[in-house]
Amino acid sequence: MTIVQIAPLLTEELFQYIWKHRLFTISHLHTIEGEAVQVLQPGVLNSNDGPDFSNARLRIGDTIWAGNVELHLKTSDWFRHNHQRDLRYRNVILHVVFEHDLEEVNTQGIPILELQSAIPKMVLHRYAKLKHSADFVPCAGNVASVERLTWRSWKDRLLVERMEKRADMMKEWLKKSHNNWEECCYWAIAYGYGMPVNGEAFLRLAQSLPYTMLMRNKHDLAQLEALLFGQAGMLEGPFADEYPLDLQAEYAFLKRKYHLLALLPHQWRWLRMRPASFPSVRLASLAVLLQQGRELFARLLEMKDLQHFQQVLFVQPEGYWKDHYRFDTPAVVMRRPGIMVTRNVIINSILPLLYLYGREKKLPEYQERALGMMETLPAEENNVMEGWKKVGILAGDAADSQALLHLKQHYCEEKRCLQCAIGCKLLKTGISL
User: Fold this and answer.
1) Looking at the structure, do residues 198 and 64 belong to the same domain, yes or no?
2) Number of domains in the chain
């Protein structure tokens, strides 16, 4: 077995984290001048311009000080960052550095505390290992050792973060639809039908076909399909089958009637997906749902039983699409879209929209309902969930799977271990200070 040597990696972010959580030997601290230092409160991390920490409380010598603390990897960084010319740094009570590299024993009269010898090497080594990891997640080898309580509270926060992120995205749709919740709901459902790979294409398609226009043509499924497939750029032809030729002619008429401009067909992705997930099959399913002509958003607000709403959304392609995945290509074996498609629409579109409604209308009961309903749905099945399973982390329901998807995408892939409750726990475990 090859042993990989990982050099200690210290960044300003890690140094701030070490100070904030006091991951250093707190006894026998002295300034460069030899005065004893006791950290009563490390202060509050400042995310804006100015000193790194505010409201710190320190005992330096026999005096208790309250004020700002500035951190640098080297003492000389104080001058490299031109703090000597910045009035905001005049009230700094302590300059904390990893390495004191100047002959002066203070920085413009501000005492200096060098922490290099007080920081356990294990902290630096663990952080370096996380940052250099090429595993599925940086902490793959240890992630399953973190206790369940830490995971539970962290997953709860991750789920809310994910819902907030989705709600922010849908708020932009709501603005674009002139605050028409039914229109926005239609866009959200279309987006959900296209996920995971064709979500944006489905959204552009929906935004190019107003909901009211589709409702005027809901009496005829062929007209709905002509609008959807024609606007998607999938009726360019030539075709051998009669049905796509009929749709082609119908779309030519509707295109002139409504002054439509079709999307480019190259935006659709077909490779490496099951035929039941082809955008053509998803569009045919969406047409059936739209033909029902129900005010889905109004029904969503009244929803008490998620199982019933799931039945409302669960539709199957009809007519030509009972034995075709694509135009002019009969299927030898036909596999119909399953209930999981509908569940994914609910998870990724319907419940985030319900959450947004509660947030915008100051009705937290809708937000709580959306979060609670996530726990009643089965966990999603995809490659990311398989990856988590291999490292010993299982998803019990959709709330768990959404949290883990968010963790993987926005923390693990970006190596934000210092902002992750699991990464922080692993950094601190077994450190004696």
Assistant:
1) no
2) 2
Q: Examine the domain organization and report whether 331 and 194 are in the same domain.
A: yes
Residue 18's nearest CA partner among 119, 150, 130 is 119
Q: What confidence tens digit (pLDDT) does each residue in 245-292 have?
A: 999 999 999 999 999 999 998 999 998 888 889 999 999 999 999 998
Final residue of a domain: which of 376, 403, 419? 376
**Rounded to an integer, what distance in angstroms lies between the CA atom of residue 392 and that of residue 385?**
11
Tokens 């200690």 -> residue: 8
Together in a domain, 184 and 106: no
For 330, phi then psi, to 5°, come to -60, 140
Same domain, 250 and 334: yes
Give the separation between CA 142 and CA 385, rounded to whole angstroms: 17
Q: Report the relative pairing of strands 29-30 and 63-74 from DSSP bridges.
A: unpaired
Q: Are residues 241 and 347 in the same domain?
A: yes
pLDDT digits (tens, 9 = 90+) for 186-208: 999 999 999 999 999 999 999 99
Nearest to 197 by CA among 314, 283, 279: 279
Ramachandran angles phi, psi of 372, nearest 5°: -65, -35
Do 410 and 423 contact (CB within 8 A), yes or no?
no
Count other C-beta atoms under 10 Å from residue 102's C-beta. Answer: 16
Asked whether the beta carbons of 218 and 290 are under 8 A apart, the reply is yes
Its pTM stands at 0.87
Burial class (CB in 10 A: 0-12, 13-18, 19+), 345: buried
Cis amide linkage into residue 238, ω under 30° from 0: yes
Within a 13 Å sphere around the CA of 172, how many CA atoms are in the beta-carbon half?
7
